[in-house]
C-alpha cells in the first residue's frame, strides 16, 4: 500500500513540479539507473530464492532429526521398562535363592535331628553297609532335589544379571545417541535461525529497492511526454478520420478493419510534435503503443500494450496490461495507476451515425471494429 501511494502521489503531481521532501535527484531520470536497480533486485530475488530453498532444506533435516529423536525416546522408554522388568526378575530370583538356601538348611537340620531316617540313624543304626547306602540315599535324595532347585535359581539369577548389564549398556548407548542428536538439533536450529535473519535482511533490502525502482519508473513515465499526451487525449484523437481497409456486413452487424499503417498515418503522421515518435501495432488481443523518449529523458524505448473494453453507449476503455521501459516490464504499482485513470476512455457514440459500437478487437496487423445498426 505504501509503494502504491508513493506511485500515486508522484504520478498525480504536475509535470513541472516536485513535491517537497521527495528527495529526487535534479535533472532528467536515467534509464540506466533503473536497469541497474532492476539487476540488483533480480540478484536479491535470486539470493532470497536460494535462502528460502536452503531454509526449506533445513526444515526437512530438522524435522527428520526430531522424528529420529522421538524414535530414540520411545526406545529409551522401552529400554527403561525392560530394565525395570529385569531388575524386578533379578530381585525375585535373589529372594527365591535366599529362601531356597534357608529351606535347604531347614531340611538338612530337620532330617539330621527329627527325620524318620536321620543322619545319626544312617550312621549308628545301619546293620550293614548295604543298609547304610540305602538310608544315605534316602536322605541325600531330598537334599539333592532341593539343591537342584537352588542351582536352577542361581543360573536364572546369573542370566538375569547378564541381561540386566546388557540392558544398562544399551540404555547408556541410547542416552548418548539422544544427547548427541539433541546437540545436533540445537546446532541446526541455531544455524537456521541465522540464515532466516539473513533472509529477512535481504527482504528488507529488496523492499527498499522495490520502492526505489517504483520511484525511478514513475519519474521515467512522467518524462514520456508524448505517451502521456496520447493517453490523456485518446478521446480527442481523429478516430472518425480512419479509413477502413475492408468492411463486411452480416445482417445488422458490420465489421470494419483498420490496418496499423492507417492508424499510424492518421494519428501520428500529421506532424503533431506532441505525438512525435509514437506508433501502434496490433497483435491478437493486444493493442501496443511504442516509441522512444526524448534524448533529455535518456532516450529509453517504451511500449504499453493492452486491449479495449466496451463500456456501453459507444464508450470504450483502453485497459493497459503491460508496460515496458527499455524492454523491461514496469512494476505493477505504476501500471495499476495508469490502468485506473478514467482518461483512457474513448467516446465513439458521437460519430457512429446511428450505429452502436459492439466490440473493438486487435488482430494481427489491424484493428477490427464491430458496429450494429
Report on this model:
The protein is α+β, with helices and mostly antiparallel strands and 373 residues long. The protein is built from seven helices and ten strands. Strands 3, 4, 5, 6, 7 and 8 form a six-stranded antiparallel sheet that branches. A hairpin with a 2-residue loop joins strand 5 and strand 6 (315-325). The longest helix is centred in the middle third of the chain and has 95 residues, at 129-223. The chain is rod-shaped, with a radius of gyration of 49 Å. The model is unreliable at 1-26 and 112-117 (pLDDT under 50).
Q: Brief description of this entry?
A:
The chain is an alpha+beta fold.
Short key terms for the protein model shown above:
7 helices, 59% helix, four-stranded antiparallel beta sheet, alpha+beta, six-stranded antiparallel beta sheet, 373 residues, single chain
| Biggest pleated-sheet summary | 6 strands, antiparallel
**How helical, in percent, are the residues?**
55-70%
The chain-level mean pLDDT equals 78
- Poorly predicted regions are 1-26, 112-117
Q: What is the H/E string?
A: HHHHHEEHEEEEEHEEE
Q: How are the secondary structure elements laid out?
A:
Elements: H1 2-12, H2 31-113, H3 119-124, H4 129-223, H5 225-232, E1 246-250, E2 253-259, H6 260-268, E3 279-283, E4 286-292, E5 301-312, E6 315-325, E7 328-329, H7 332-339, E8 345-347, E9 356-363, E10 366-372
Antiparallel strand pairs: 1-2, 2-10, 3-4, 4-5, 5-6, 6-7, 6-8, 9-10
Amino acid at each position: 500500500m505504501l509503494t502504491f501511494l508513493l506511485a500515486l502521489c508522484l504520478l498525480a503531481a504536475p509535470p513541472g513540479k516536485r513535491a517537497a521532501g521527495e528527495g529526487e535527484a535534479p535533472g532528467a531520470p536515467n534509464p540506466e539507473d533503473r536497469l541497474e536497480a532492476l539487476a540488483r533486485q533480480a540478484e536479491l530475488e535470486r539470493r532470497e530464492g536460494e535462502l528460502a530453498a536452503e531454509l526449506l532444506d533445513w526444515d526437512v533435516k530438522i524435522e527428520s532429526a526430531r522424528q529420529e529423536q522421538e524414535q530414540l525416546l520411545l526406545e529409551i522408554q522401552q529400554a527403561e521398562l525392560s530394565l525395570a522388568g529385569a531388575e524386578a526378575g533379578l530381585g525375585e530370583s535373589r529372594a527365591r535363592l535366599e529362601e531356597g538356601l534357608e529351606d535347604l538348611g531347614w531340611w538338612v537340620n530337620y532330617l539330621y535331628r527329627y527325620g524318620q531316617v536321620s543322619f545319626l540313624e544312617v550312621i549308628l543304626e545301619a546293620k550293614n553297609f548295604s543298609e547304610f547306602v540305602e538310608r544315605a540315599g534316602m536322605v541325600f535324595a531330598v537334599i539333592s532335589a532341593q539343591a537342584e532347585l537352588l542351582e536352577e535359581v542361581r543360573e536364572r539369577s546369573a542370566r538375569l544379571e547378564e541381561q540386566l548389564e546388557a540392558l544398562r549398556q544399551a540404555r547408556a548407548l541410547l542416552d548418548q545417541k539422544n544427547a548427541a542428536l539433541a546437540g545436533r538439533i540445537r546446532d541446526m536450529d541455531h544455524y537456521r535461525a541465522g540464515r532466516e535473519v539473513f533472509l529477512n535482511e535481504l527482504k528488507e533490502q529488496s523492499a527498499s529497492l522495490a520502492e526505489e525502482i517504483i520511484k525511478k519508473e514513475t519519474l521515467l513515465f512522467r518524462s514520456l511526454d508524448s505517451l502521456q499526451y496520447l493517453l490523456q487525449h485518446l478521446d480527442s484523437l481523429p478516430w472518425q478520420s480512419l479509413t477502413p481497409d475492408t468492411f463486411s456486413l452480416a445482417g445488422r452487424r458490420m465489421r470494419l478493419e483498420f490496418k496499423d499503417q492507417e492508424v499510424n498515418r492518421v494519428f501520428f503522421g500529421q506532424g503533431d510534435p506532441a505525438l512525435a515518435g509514437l506508433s501502434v501495432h496490433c497483435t491478437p488481443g493486444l493493442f501496443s503503443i511504442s516509441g522512444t523518449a526524448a534524448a533529455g529523458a535518456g532516450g529509453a524505448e517504451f511500449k504499453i500494450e493492452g486491449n479495449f473494453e466496451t463500456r456501453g453507449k459507444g464508450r470504450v476503455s483502453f485497459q493497459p496490461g503491460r508496460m515496458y521501459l527499455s524492454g523491461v516490464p514496469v512494476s505493477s504499482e505504476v501500471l495499476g495507476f495508469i490502468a485506473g485513470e478514467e482518461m483512457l476512455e474513448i467516446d465513439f457514440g458521437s460519430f457512429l451515425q446511428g450505429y452502436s459500437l459492439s466490440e473493438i478487437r486487435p488482430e494481427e496487423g489491424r484493428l477490427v471494429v464491430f458496429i450494429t445498426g
